[in-house]
Amino acid sequence: MAQWIQMAMQGVGSIFTAAGQIREGERENRIAKSEAAQLRQAGTEEYGARTREAYEHAKRTEVMVSNARAAMAGSGGVTTDAQALHQLSEIKRDGDFNVLDTMFKGKAIKADYDRKAAFRQWEGKVAKRAGKNAAIATILSGGYSMMNTYNQNKPPPTDSKGTTGGGENIYPSASGSEYAGMMGWGA
User: Fold this and answer.
1) Residue 187 has pLDDT above 50, yes or no
2) How far apart are the first and last CA of the chain?
């Protein structure tokens, strides 16, 4: 009787342990998904900040070009001759470079956050899968332990003659008539 209680406790313990391992893997997956969403949000915010910064560069460039034209015109110069156009185009080129550089940095930072988020999400999936694999291993191990407990406490095997491996008969000896009487056939 004690062997059955021990086997039942092993089985229940294995099931509870396996369920805990599955829940732990799912919890890790939920945490990873949450962290991935936060990383993506941070990347989007960083990209937005860089976009605003690029917009400010563009506005400053327009103001600088306008101020240069005004200074040229105020000093009696012409804003359409070759030298003036060259000066204005350099100001515009530098401003455009700053805008593009800022936008590129924003995209690169966002892509980095997105990569980190994807990796974190992958880690969560791996943790979930590992929890399921650990649960399966626990159940198999528990089943093996239960089988060993049963095998250690069962009676020795017998052959078709009712003898154990040592040759002794484990059934009571009875002659044919006694046997027929035990079976209710009459002798």
Assistant:
1) no
2) 39
The answer to whether 148 and 63 are in contact (CB under 8 A) is: no
- Cβ-contact 57, 102 below 8 angstroms: yes
Tens digit of each residue's pLDDT (9 = 90 or more) over 141-185: 888 777 777 777 666 666 565 555 555 555 555 555 555 555 555
130 within 8 A of 49, measured Cβ to Cβ:
no
Calculate the CA dihedral of residues 166, 168, 170, 171 and round it to 10 degrees.
150
Alpha-carbon distance of 149 to 3, in angstroms, equals 7
pTM value surpassing 0.70: no
Secondary structure of the chain in the HEC alphabet? Answer: CHHHHHHHHHHHHHHHHHHHHHHHHHHHHHHHHHHHHHHHHHHHHHHHHHHHHHHHHHHHHHHHHHHHHHHHHHCCCCCCCHHHHHHHHHHHHHHHHHHHHHHHHHHHHHHHHHHHHHHHHHHHHHHHHHHHHHHHHHHHHHHHHHHHHHHHHCCCCCCCCCECCCCCECCCCCCHHHHHHHCCCCC
